[in-house]
Amino acid sequence: MEQFKYKARKRDGAVVYGTVNAPNEAAVAAFIRKQDMYVAGIEASKKKGLFSGVLFEESINLYDISIFARQFATLLGAGVPLLTGLEILTQQSAKERLRTVLGQITTSVRGIIGLLVPSHTRMNMHIFEDGHLTRLISGVEAGIENSDFRLLLIFNDKRFMDDREYMSLIQSQNIDGLLVWGAQPSETFWQEPVEAGLPIVFAVTVPGPLEQYNYTINATRAGTRKALELLASHGHRRILQLHETRNAFLERQMDAEIAEFLRERPGITIDVQDIRSSGDEIAVPLFRRPGAPTAVLAYNYSMGVEAYGRLAEAGIRVPDEIEIVSCYSYQSRKSWVSTVVVDDYEIGRTAVKNLQKLIESPDRRLQAEIPFSFFFGQTTRNAADVPTP
């Protein structure tokens, strides 16, 4: 049985509206005739077409609908996104009932969030080999699980950026908001969609000054400070920093915290070695010289593992002679490198939650830093084994 709404006329011309449960429209018509009335209209309640219910609302007529259709076609022809066009016409409508119906339609078509990630050509690897991204996507999925939003995954390659294809794609897909993973400070094309008013939240990395964007990021500076404080508390006064050169945003965050730390601790020196690719080797001979570093501050967990292996091959004992700490890892399993652990799952969940808020209130500024945790592995000494300075 379905529920139907009907409109009928009595013999004296009076209009009657009502609802009835019936197997089909023919049964509804029979019901109306049994009441000694004429059928004026029947509609299944569960059907929700473009103007569902309009037949039964005398305040909306065919002229209103034709005007709406003409204006809507004009907006779409001018390149205005579908959702924006609906919102404009909803606000401009003089009739309260029409505004209500258009508001319902707007709600029904709203619900696509784009997740923009670098293509494998930009990352030099398949994106799903990156544990950070897979965990972030899991968090995003959890963040929209009980919402009306759906997720659209978009791959960002060089052509996508150079040809400005992202704006036409966003408009054609009627995307309500964009979650961006992997944006870098060298990329300037983000200014266009931001200025166009598209709700955007940057996750993990931000393409410019933090105060200009909505973002959800790791507490990178606090994590770097934790690693430095640990090494300093173990008596290390000369440290080798293994520097990543592919992620400019995280580099700058870490470097800013290191610079501040060194200003506060003038007795500590940090040497820097840039690791430009996986083929670059750690300068092991540095550790054989007088006054050599006694600790390694690795950009990420992979570099920490690499340093551990190179030092072990050279016969240098870790952590007895050299301690190693990583500043960035998603490690969810037990490992042997001591590291700052970031919560990519929570970044994804928080970022998409904030994006939903931003879609509802575009003028808001939503910025969040997700706390880190620290894993003590086998590359640092226990507090009891650290000599007192």
Describe this structure in words.
Helix content is 38%, strand content 22%. The protein is α/β, with parallel strands linked by helices and 389 residues long. It folds into three domains: 2-109, no CATH class; 113-218 and 345-371, Response regulator (Rossmann fold), CATH 3.40.50; 220-343 and 374-385, 3-Layer(aba) Sandwich (Rossmann fold), CATH 3.40.50. A six-stranded parallel β-sheet has the order 5-4-6-7-8-14. Strand 11, helix 12 and strand 12 form a beta-alpha-beta unit. Helix 2 (62-77) packs across helix 3, helix 3 (82-92) runs antiparallel to helix 4 and helix 10 (220-233) crosses helix 11 (248-264). The longest helix has 17 residues, at 248-264. It is elongated and about 110 Å long.
Key structural traits:
6-stranded mixed sheet, 3 domains, 389 residues, alpha/beta, 15 strands, Rossmann fold
Concise structural overview:
The protein is an alpha/beta fold and 389 residues long.
Helix and strand element order = EEHEHHHEHHEHHEHEEHEHEEHEEHEE
Strand composition percent = 15-25%
Largest sheet, spatial ordering of strands? 5-4-6-7-8-14
What would you call the shape?
elongated
Q: How many strands appear in the DSSP assignment?
A: 15
Mean pLDDT across every amino acid position:
81
Counting structural domains, the number is: 3
- Main sheet record: 6 strands, parallel
The CATH topology label of the largest domain is Rossmann fold
> Quick one: CATH class of the largest domain?
Alpha Beta
